Amino acid sequence: MNRNTTSDRPVGALVQDWTPPAMPSGDILNGRYARLEPLTAEKHAALLFRSFDGHDHIWDYMADGPYSSASQYHRWVRDNAGLSDPFFYAIRNLESACWEGVASYLRIAPQSGSIEVGSISYSPALQRTRAATEAMYLMMKWAFEAGYRRYEWKCNALNGPSRRAAQRLGLSFEGVFRQAMVIKGRNRDTAWFAAIDKEWPALREAFEAWLSPSNFTSEGVQIERLGDLTGLVRATSDPTL
Q1: E-strand spans in 7-149?
Q2: 3-class SS at 23?
Q3: pLDDT tens-digit series, residues 148-170
């Protein structure tokens, strides 16, 4: 009997022994280059603002920001830290010993096994570092090991660096939703990327190979590119890149 059909009409494959995963619960995510802790105003806001201050372009494609003062940013962190969805992490670059970024899980749907990573704010000091990549690896790793089936990344379709980052991290391009949102009074078309659970073992191997100290020279220059490693796993590529 074909379990993927009813009568003569095709239906989705059965998901065997499906148990919805848990919501993010605040686990600290530790790596070799990065440490992620649940965001709090008291511990992180002032230090994060220091790393963001003077770099207003960070907020060009974000729903919030820029922030004109440490107190203004502190209020934003206070209002958003501790939410269950989005669930925010502060990112510490262990090589600089500084708090230099923020990212969150959002649109968390345990019943469907879907979770998104977003609201990613990286200071210039964190961008293009091993810690920046490892932070995304640690968040993806937690999601798939917790039992999520689908890991999403969405961004403004005009945000080329975000689209390149998603593809480099091994997420497959799934299309553009036109006129999806209005952000800061402007239209936003949204580009969609995702990885699914059956791709995770190969993506994990790619990340671990790239993050290995043996993949870097004594000056910290990469030997193999992560995008080359994950390119073997991605189902589809972004046609704009």
Answers
A1: 9-10, 29-30, 34-38, 87-93, 98-109, 114-122
A2: coil
A3: 999 999 999 999 999 999 999 99
Kindly report the number of other CB atoms within 10 A of residue 8's CB atom: 5
Length of the chain (residues): 241
Task: Name the nearest CA neighbour of 49 among 127, 96, 101.
Answer: 101
CA angle 194, 174, 121 (to 5 degrees): 50
3-state secondary structure at position 115? strand
Rounded alpha-carbon distances, angstroms, from residue 36 to 21, 27, 107, 132, 183: 20, 9, 20, 11, 28
Joined together, the tokens standing for residue 69 give 């003062």
Q: What is the pTM of this model?
A: 0.95
Distance CA 1, CA 189 (A): 43
DSSP characters over 127-153:
TTSHHHHHHHHHHHHHHHHHT-SEEEE
Tally helices (H) and strands (E) across the chain: 6, 10
Please report, as a single letter, which amino acid is at residue 171. Answer: L
Contact criterion met (CB below 8 Å) for 138 and 146: no
